[in-house]
Design goal:
By secondary structure, the chain is an alpha/beta fold. It is built from 6 helices and 5 strands. It has a 5-stranded mixed beta sheet with strand order 1-2-5-4-3, with helices on one face. The N and C termini lie far apart (44 Å).
C-alpha cells in the first residue's frame, strides 16, 4: 500500500479523490417543456458552484442512514449535484450499482424517478431505511411489491405516473440470469 515505506523513493499515496466521467450522446438534446425546464433550473450560485472542476464535499458520517452498514457510502451532495446538473424534473435516473441507495434518495429528493440495481441482498434494509427518511411528497406513495424469485428480490413502487424499480440479485448471478423472468 505504501510502496517502499518507510524509505524513499517509491512512496505510493492513497487516492483520496473521486473522478467523474461525463459522456454525452451525439445529436440535439430532446426539447423539454418550459415548465419542466423552470422546475429544474439552477440558481446562479448553484450553477457556479456545481460547474467547478474540483468539488470539496463532506465525507459521509454517522448522520448517514448507511453509516457502518455499507463499506463505501457516497456523499449525498455528490449525487444531488450530478442529478441536478444532468437531468430534468420527472426524468429517470438509472443506478446500476445502488449500494446504500444514496442516488435513489437524491433522485427522489429532486423530483426524479429512479431505477436501481444492487446485487447484495444484505443492502436492501439499508436502502429501504434511507428512502424511508424522505418526506411523503418525495416518496413513492403507492405500494412496495417485493417478489422473490429464487434468490432474486425485485421491488417495484408505483406512484401515479412514476415507477421506481429496485432489483437485488446475488453476487453469483450473471446479468442474463438477473434479467430472466
Amino acid at each position: 500500500m505504501f510502496g517502499s515505506y518507510p524509505y524513499p523513493p517509491n512512496f505510493y499515496a492513497q487516492n483520496t479523490i473521486e473522478f467523474i466521467g461525463v459522456f454525452v450522446k451525439d445529436g440535439e438534446p430532446e426539447k423539454e417543456p418550459q415548465a419542466i425546464k423552470e422546475a429544474s433550473k439552477l440558481t446562479e450560485e448553484e450553477w457556479v458552484k456545481f460547474t467547478k472542476q474540483v468539488w470539496t464535499l463532506p465525507i459521509p458520517n454517522v448522520r448517514d442512514e448507511a453509516y457502518g452498514l455499507h463499506p463505501a457510502i457516497m456523499p449525498l451532495e455528490m449525487a444531488e449535484r450530478l442529478i441536478r446538473l444532468y437531468s430534468f424534473v420527472d426524468d429517470i435516473v438509472l443506478d446500476p450499482f445502488m449500494g446504500s441507495g444514496t442516488t435513489a434518495k437524491a433522485a427522489r429528493m429532486w423530483g426524479r424517478h429512479y431505477i436501481g440495481y444492487e446485487i447484495d441482498p444484505s443492502f436492501q434494509p439499508v436502502i429501504e431505511r434511507k428512502l424511508a427518511q424522505l418526506s411523503l411528497a418525495q416518496q413513492d406513495l403507492w405500494r412496495l411489491c417485493v417478489h422473490n424469485r429464487g434468490e432474486r428480490t425485485i421491488g417495484i413502487k408505483h406512484s401515479g405516473s412514476s415507477t421506481s424499480i429496485l432489483a437485488i440479485t446475488p453476487y453469483h448471478s450473471t446479468t442474463t440470469q438477473a434479467l430472466l423472468p
